[in-house]
Amino acid sequence: MSKVRAYELSKAFGVPSKEIVKILKDYGVSNKNHMSALDENEVNVIFEYYTQKNPAKDFSAVLKVAEKAPVKEEKKAKKAEDNSDNEYSSVDAPPENKGRKVRVVDTRVNDVDLDRLDDEEIEKLIPDNVKDESSVKKQKIKNAPKKAKMNKNQPENHKNVKKEKKPEKLEVKIPDEITVGELASRLDRPVTEVIKKLMLLGIMASMNETIDFDTASLIVEDFGGVVEREIILTEEDKLFNDVEDLPESLKPRSPVVVVMGHVDHGKTSLLDTIRNTNVTQGEFGGITQHIGAYRVRVGNEKITFLDTPGHEAFTAMRARGALVTDIAILVVAADDGIMPQTIEAINHAKAAEVSIIVAINKIDKDGANPDRVKQELTEYGLVPEEWGGDTVCVEISAKKNINIDKLLEMVVLIAEMKELKANPNRLAKGTVIEAQLDKGRGSVATLLVQNGTLKVGDVVVAGTAVGRVRAMIDDKGRQIKKAGPSIPVEILGLSEVPEGGDLFYAVSDEKKAREVVEARKFKQKQASQKAAAVSLDNLFAQIEAGKMKNLNIIVKADVNGSAEAVKQSLERIKNEEVQVNVIHAAVGAINESDVMLASASSAIIVGFNVRPTPGAVAAADASDVDMRMYRVIYDAIEDIEAAMKGMLSPKFKEVVTGHIEIRTTFKVSGVGTIGGAYVTDGKIQRNSQVRVVRDGIVIHEGLLGSLKRFKDDVKEVASGYECGVSIDGFNDIKDGDVVEAFVMEQIMP
After folding, report:
1. Which of 124, 301, 516, 637 is 20 to 30 A from 13 via CA?
2. What would the DSSP string read from start to end of 532-577?
3. Are 747 and 651 in contact (CB under 8 A)?
4. Looking at residues 325-342, what average pLDDT do you find?
5. How many C-alpha atoms does 136 have within 13 Å on its Cβ side?
6. How far apart are CA 432 and CA 450, in angstroms?
7. Whole-number mean pLDDT of the chain?
8. Could you tell me the pLDDT band of residue 115, with boundaries at 50, 70 and 90?
9. Distance CA 22, CA 24 (A)
10. Which is nearest to 19 in space by CA: 34, 4, 29?
11. CB-based contacts of 106-112 (< 8 A; 24+ apart in sequence)
12. 541 Cβ partners below 8 Å, 6+ apart?
């Protein structure tokens, strides 16, 4: 026979367990506690006690619990007659009350809880003279609409157990970053508990330190909470309108096409043919040194072209170009095939998810094999259409203008399939293609408008630069008032030179724009200070350990793109003993502060298409700072590599002989532009090699054409004298230009 535990009876009677134990003790049963199992006699004792004390109370709940120890009426009666060995029974009175008539408990009272009884039990409780099946069912239905149905297979002794309501999980909102103290506050937990959890994750953080969203999420989940991401709108979010445009506001726009490929495979020549201009002659050594943006008309359509350099040093510039474009023209020489830079270009285009058109160039050359190029393309996932793939391949000759029209038709066709659209009726947003500092015009930035319309007078934020657009010039050099989507423009009016690749926004609130820019500058300053401190610690640690030598370099270039490219190229040079650190890279002429930084950090200065100021030259001589000037990046890389290997032994050395300042210019028919000049230092010799420097930027390098004093040709002109000069192949001499004369002297071993 199953036993009933004391605590179950106490729950049924609605009394504390200790009261049940006390009653049993009063009746001589002293070895019981709340978990003790009670036999039939002990249950009867408790039942007798409470029925005598409360004769009118409903004990139907107790009956259901007592079913574990059922008491049959016949058995009870027999026990009463036979006076069995049991000390007490449910119908027996205590010893002093033996002989009393068996009591019948009347449960027919108004407060019977029908929910706890099944139909058979209810029938037993209702007298025969008032028994009505419909009334019983109606009352049961009326009183038990919210009661959960019991599983038929569930034991009866669990029918009375109340289901505890599960506590709701704590929802915690977490931003991208949160301090440990704030997280503890939102969890309503002591900070020490949160810090312990972080320590278990291997993170040592104090109360005021910041942790990221992922780490905070782990902590919240560990405490049983639910994480919800909290989006905090910054001043930038409020200022910059990045709301997605409605479909009905979008209008068709021109495609932006980037021309990519290996160096010397004919990218610039292809653009020359398309634009009917000759850029190649203006590039030193035939290498495109900067990104340019051009807009051309093809039939009734217009296409914007970005001309990216092909040399590997400009990988970052090329990646920027691919990210803002819709279609990439991959130029591959038919006689050369796939090269390392071609593979990089393919990867950049795929990463940017732009459509690729392959222009197989130089098909007119001997040894051209377009089929071999197509075969190599398949190795990189580019299967030509004629071979069953989806990559458009056009065989062209940029120099002889073969199939250029077909190539452009393919560009227009793919653009139509892509259904390129933008909203011109909103504030402009786009990307900075290139930027530089011009002495006469200030900061000049080339922008590609990607959405909205940029207008003269708009306030523009680009990186840490802000300003009102004072003028806009298109790719043809014409001043315009506004530029819509896919249009490249050059703007004036920014406070400083932005970085190439920066996003720009036209905003409506100039005051907030300047606040945002100041906040960005402050963050950058903090980051640079932190980085500098870390690098110094590492530097001294490595020097003390003697494990690695550091070659510190300062890079100065004419434009941001070149500075970035030179920096990345030099930092990639490494060997087992020496590490290259570019500690500073900037735009403009080499000045005295650059020399001071180089002297303090034992660095050398690499100038790319720039010259040092006279003050910088004097400072470098005084502090023995090594300055090296280059116009082609290959030379810089080779020299640094040789220096690192200890093999730098140049056969020739450049020696500057003097400088002259152009003070006036006049044109002579049949000769060209003549510069009236003054020799500021050194001396100038006829047939010297010269370079023309304007605002610290080298704009031409060549030979001195003629050197005159008054009307006579002379061999040389000394410092402090005036002279007239012309430069072979260069007529763009302007007032204020500085002509630097130099000779290459052989260094004797």
Report:
1. 124
2. HHHHHHHHHHHHHHTS-EEEEEEEEESSHHHHHHHHHHHHT-B-SS
3. yes
4. 86
5. 16
6. 11
7. 76
8. low
9. 5
10. 34
11. 106/56, 107/58, 107/59, 107/60, 109/56, 109/58, 111/58, 112/58, 112/60
12. none
How much is the pTM? 0.51
Residue 460 and residue 504 in contact, taking contact as beta carbons nearer than 8 Å: yes
Instruction: State the residue for tokens 């090594």.
Output: 626
In this structure, what token pair is assigned to residue 148? Answer: 């959960």
Is the pLDDT assigned to residue 188 strictly greater than 50?
yes
Amino acid identity of 748? M
Angle between helices 213-222 and 191-200 (to 10 degrees): 110
Give one DSSP letter per residue of 444-469, joined into a string: EEEEEEEESBEETT-EEEETTEEEEE
Q: How far is 749 from 747, CA to CA, in rounded Å?
A: 6
**Residue ranges of domains in the chain, CATH in brackets:** 4-158 (no CATH), 171-229 (1.10.10), 249-422 (3.40.50.300), 429-519 (2.40.30.10), 548-649 (3.40.50.10050), 653-746 (2.40.30.10)
Residue 372 buriedness (CB in 10 A; 0-12 / 13-18 / 19+):
middle
CA angle 58, 60, 64 (to 5 degrees): 160
Judged on CB neighbours under 10 Å (0-12, 13-18, 19+), 125 is middle
236-257 exposure pattern, b = at least 16 Cβ within 10 A, e = fewer: beebbeeeeeeeeebeebbbbb
Length of the chain as a residue count: 749
What type of residue sits at position 306? L
Contact 572, 316 (CB under 8 A): no
Dump pLDDT digits (tens) for 29-47: 777 776 777 787 787 778 7
Q: Residue 676: is it exposed, middle or buried by C-beta count within 10 angstroms (0-12/13-18/19+)?
A: middle
- The phi, psi pair for 386, rounded to 5°, reads -70, -10
Q: How far apart are CA 535 and CA 80, in angstroms?
A: 99
